[in-house]
């Protein structure tokens, strides 16, 4: 468990540093392009990009969980509104030796759940209305135990940062492509070097910038896949250690796998946070190519491991 916590802390630092380097490089490159090869403009672009990236990274650390909750349309509920859910969360928090996370409900019919936050002192667990309606108490305990393990192992910190940076990278790519289309490549940016080698150099820079703009969404996908699928297996195992009843989570996963209801609020930026990947086609096995780029392991494999326990 402590190795997983240390690993997630290292991954969080590496992902933030990687995002800073990538964004800074884009800023430097576009500074060169906009300034027609001017070194001063390139440095300005680098500085602006690094400042924006650093501010965004800090904001994702401090407030990224609230963005995830708002994006998912999660609503905080009191003990009086959902006593069963609160009792389960409180009991498993005591078993894990953690403060009780804030409790939210997502207005979705598909059964699913996620945890978010930057540490155990600032954590939240959200479940869909469909999960509450579908699961009995032992199944609900299995699900909450899984999410409580993510809180204890600091998966929530890495997951929240990843969700925010993925959104940022997609927005950056959109801005770049619009800039190229509406004037960056076709309208301005004349080289200071005239019509000879300078013009050729500018054309190469513009082409490189366009390529980077096109591959930025792929880079965002790589960031998301940095969330190791192994953490889901580990959270399953640690979750049933909290409940001391592996069949509870196994039964819950079977219900989730068989449920055909699509999720409306989930998106690519937050898919890795959910108990089961929302984009999966429930009730049938996915193609090996889809599994290759999935942030979650196949749910049937997770059920098999729990049954072996």
Structure commentary:
The protein is an alpha+beta fold. The protein has a domain at 2-62 and 158-218. The chain has helices at residues 2-34, 39-71, 83-96, 129-134, 137-152, 155-184, 197-225, 230-243, 246-258, 288-292, 299-308; strands at 75-76, 102-106, 113-119, 122-128. A four-stranded mixed beta sheet has the order 1-2-4-3, with helices on both faces. Helix 2 packs across helix 6. The longest helix has 33 residues, at 2-34. The chain is elongated. Residues 189-193 and 280-284 have low confidence and may be disordered.
Considering the chains and any ligands shown, give keywords for the structure:
single chain; 309 residues; alpha+beta; 4-stranded mixed sheet
How are the SSEs ordered, and which strands pair?
Elements: H1 2-34, H2 39-71, E1 75-76, H3 83-96, E2 102-106, E3 113-119, E4 122-128, H4 129-134, H5 137-152, H6 155-184, H7 197-225, H8 230-243, H9 246-258, H10 288-292, H11 299-308
Parallel strand pairs: 2-4
Antiparallel strand pairs: 1-2, 3-4
Helix pairs in contact: 1-2, 1-6, 1-7, 2-6, 3-5, 5-8, 5-9, 6-7, 9-11
Short description:
The protein is an alpha+beta fold. The chain has a domain at 2-62 and 158-218.
């Amino acid at each position: 468990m402590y190795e997983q916590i240390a690993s997630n802390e290292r991954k969080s630092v590496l992902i933030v540093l990687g995002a800073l380097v990538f964004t800074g490089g884009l800023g430097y490159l576009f500074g060169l392009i906009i300034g027609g090869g001017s070194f001063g403009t390139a440095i300005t672009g680098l500085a602006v990009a690094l400042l924006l990236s650093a501010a965004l990274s800090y904001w994702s650390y401090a407030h990224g969980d609230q963005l995830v909750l708002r994006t998912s349309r999660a609503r905080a509920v009191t003990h009086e509104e959902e006593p069963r859910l609160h009792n389960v969360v409180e009991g498993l928090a005591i078993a894990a030796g953690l403060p009780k996370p804030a409790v939210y409900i997502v207005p979705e019919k598909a059964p699913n759940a996620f945890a978010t936050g930057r540490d155990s002192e600032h954590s939240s667990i959200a479940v869909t209305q469909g999960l509450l309606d579908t699961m009995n108490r032992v199944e609900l305990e299995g699900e909450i135990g899984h999410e409580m393990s993510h809180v204890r192992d600091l998966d929530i910190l890495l997951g929240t940062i990843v969700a925010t940076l993925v959104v940022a990278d997609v927005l950056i790519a959109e801005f770049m492509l619009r800039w190229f289309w509406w004037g960056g490549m076709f309208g301005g940016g004349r080289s200071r070097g005239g019509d000879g080698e300078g013009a050729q150099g500018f054309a190469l820079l513009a082409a490189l910038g366009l390529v980077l703009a096109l591959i930025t969404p792929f880079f965002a996908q790589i960031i998301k896949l940095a969330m190791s699928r192994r953490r889901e297996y580990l959270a399953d195992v640690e979750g049933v250690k909290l409940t001391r009843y592996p069949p509870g989570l196994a039964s819950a996963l079977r219900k989730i796998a068989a449920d055909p209801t699509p999720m409306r609020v989930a998106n690519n930026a937050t898919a890795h946070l959910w108990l089961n990947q929302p984009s999966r086609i429930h009730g049938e096995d996915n193609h090996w190519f889809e599994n290759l780029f999935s942030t979650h392991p196949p749910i049937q494999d997770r059920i098999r491991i729990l049954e072996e326990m």
